[in-house]
UniProtKB/TrEMBL annotation:
Cofactor(s) this protein requires: Mg(2+)
Keyword Cell division belongs to the record: yes
SUPFAM superfamilies: P-loop containing nucleoside triphosphate hydrolases
Domain of life: Bacteria
Job description of the protein: Necessary for normal cell division and for the maintenance of normal septation.
Name of the molecule in the record: Probable GTP-binding protein EngB
Family classification: Belongs to the TRAFAC class TrmE-Era-EngA-EngB-Septin-like GTPase superfamily. EngB GTPase family.
Organism of this sequence: Defluviimonas salinarum
C-alpha cells in the first residue's frame, strides 16, 4: 500500500491548473470501459475513489489523486468515446499533448488494454503520442479473469509483438484483474518503488 491515504485532489482542464510538480507521478490511460476506474479503486483500496473522475463533466479532465506524501496518481480521461464533439476532442488532445510533453515529474504512463481485445487502432494513437513525448509507458492488461488461463501467454505475446514498433514501450506487461485482485499488488509495488 502507499505510505499514507489516497485522496482525490482535483480535476485539471488546463496546464495552469496542474498541481505543483513536487511528487513522483504516474498516469493511467485507456479507452473508455477498459476498467480504469476499477483498477484505480483496486490499487488504492478505495472502492469508489475513481468514480469521481467518471462522472459526466469530469470525463475530459485530468484527475489528480494524492497517494501518501510521495506520489500523484493521474487519471487521464478515457478515449474512444464515439459521441464526443470534435471541438471537445481537439481541446482535450491539446491538453494531453502539453501534459505528456511538459510534465517533468511524470515517471511512467500505464496504458490499460482489455485483455480480451488487445491493442486496437484507438490505442495506437495514445501509444504514438507517448513515443513522441518520450514518456515511458507500460501496458496493463485488464479483465484477465474474462480470458481463459490457457490463452494468456498467446495474448501477451501478441501484445508484445504489437509493442515492437513503439520506442517508449517498457518491456514488462502487467496482467490484472480488478475483480479477482490479480496483478494489483505487482502494480502497486511498481509505483511505490518509483522515486
Ligand atoms: P472505465 O470506463 O475504464 O473506468 O471502466 P470501469 O472501471 O468503469 O469498468 C467498465 C466495466 O468493466 C464495468 O462493468 C466493470 O465492472 C467491468 N470491469 C472492470 N474491471 C474488471 C475486471 O477486472 N474483471 C471483470 N470481469 N470486469 C471488470
Amino acid at each position: 500500500m502507499f505510505a499514507g491515504p489516497v485522496d482525490f485532489l482535483k480535476g485539471v482542464v488546463a496546464m495552469e491548473g496542474l498541481p505543483p510538480a513536487d511528487r513522483v507521478e504516474v498516469c493511467f490511460a485507456g479507452r473508455s470501459n477498459v476498467g480504469k476506474s476499477s483498477l484505480i479503486n483496486a490499487l488504492t483500496g478505495r472502492k469508489s475513489l475513481a468514480r469521481a473522475s467518471n462522472t459526466p463533466g469530469r470525463t475530459q479532465e485530468i484527475n489528480y489523486f494524492t497517494a501518501g506524501d510521495s506520489h500523484y496518481l493521474v487519471d487521464l480521461p478515457g478515449y474512444g468515446y464515439a459521441e464526443a464533439p470534435v471541438a471537445v476532442v481537439a481541446k482535450w488532445q491539446r491538453l494531453l499533448k502539453s501534459y505528456l510533453g511538459g510534465r517533468q515529474t511524470l515517471r511512467r504512463a500505464f496504458v490499460l488494454i482489455d485483455m480480451r481485445h488487445g491493442i486496437k487502432a484507438v490505442d495506437e494513437e495514445i501509444l504514438t503520442l507517448l513515443d513522441r513525448s518520450a514518456v515511458t509507458f507500460e501496458v496493463v492488461l485488464t479483465k484477465a479473469d474474462k480470458v481463459k488461463a490457457a490463452d494468456h501467454d498467446k495474448i501477451i505475446a501478441q501484445v508484445r509483438a504489437a509493442l515492437q514498433k513503439h520506442t517508449a514501450a517498457y518491456p514488462e506487461i502487467v496482467v490484472t484483474s480488478s475483480e479477482k485482485g490479480d496483478g494489483i499488488e505487482t502494480l502497486r509495488a511498481i509505483i511505490a518503488t518509483m522515486a
